[in-house]
Amino acid sequence: MSDISKAAGVNDALLYRHFESKEALFDAAIVEPLHRHVELLLSFESRAGEALSGDRDAYVTDLLVAVLEAAKDLAPLLGVMLYGGGGYAEPFYTSQIEPAIERFAAAIEAHDEEWEHADFSARLLVQLAIGACLMIAAEERLSGKAADAERIRELAEFLQAGLAPRVST
């Protein structure tokens, strides 16, 4: 904790007044914000059925906008969580990320028969959408230029076009 307090420009006692350990500080600074963002994104899962059988374009675009906005905050936290060591990565991934991916995939699969599409892996689709948004968020952060709404619509169209029924020749 002394390295942390030194880097923050405060004394050890101040940190210990608010956090009993490095682990408690890590939970407050990294784990809790990640958890809140995952829960926010999961709120879209409850609308998936209605959207997939109705206005998919608007739903997918709205969802990608939300994922991109969350990714702007999540990317640095995820980097620390998943690649920072300390034994946090696997438990966090299996308790938070994996179930979120599975819930979205299950919501897509639950409405599989309601729209015409090519065969696809719902899990891979969810991973592609999240990965694309993380990369756009990284580009925004590093270039200083915000992604415009057209870019998100383009991503939504691209993902949906990939699901279009295949025409046999």
Topology:
Blueprint: H1 2-8, H2 12-18, H3 22-42, H4 48-52, H5 56-83, H6 89-110, H7 122-143, H8 149-161
Helix content: over 70%
Rg over C-alpha atoms, rounded to the nearest angstrom: 19 Å
- The class by helix and strand makeup works out as mainly alpha
Give me the count of strands: 0
CATH fold annotation = Tetracycline Repressor, domain 2
Mean pLDDT, as a whole number?
Answer: 82
Q: Low-confidence parts, pLDDT < 50 over ≥5 residues?
A: none
The CATH C-level name is Mainly Alpha
Q: List the secondary-structure elements in sequence, H or E.
A: HHHHHHHH
Helix segment count? 8
Shape: elongated
In what range is the share of β-strand residues?
A: under 5%
Distance between the termini: 66 Å
Count of folded domains? 1
Let me know the largest β-sheet: none
Level-2 CATH architecture: Orthogonal Bundle
Task: Describe, in plain words, how this protein is organized in 3D.
With 169 residues, the chain is mostly helical. The chain has helices spanning 2-8, 12-18, 22-42, 48-52, 56-83, 89-110, 122-143, 149-161. Helices cover 74% and strands 0% of the residues. Helix 3 (22-42) runs parallel beside helix 6 (89-110) and helix 5 crosses helix 7 (122-143). The radius of gyration is 19 Å and the shape is elongated. It starts with a helix and ends in an 8-residue tail after the last helix. 15% of the residues are buried. The mean pLDDT is 82.
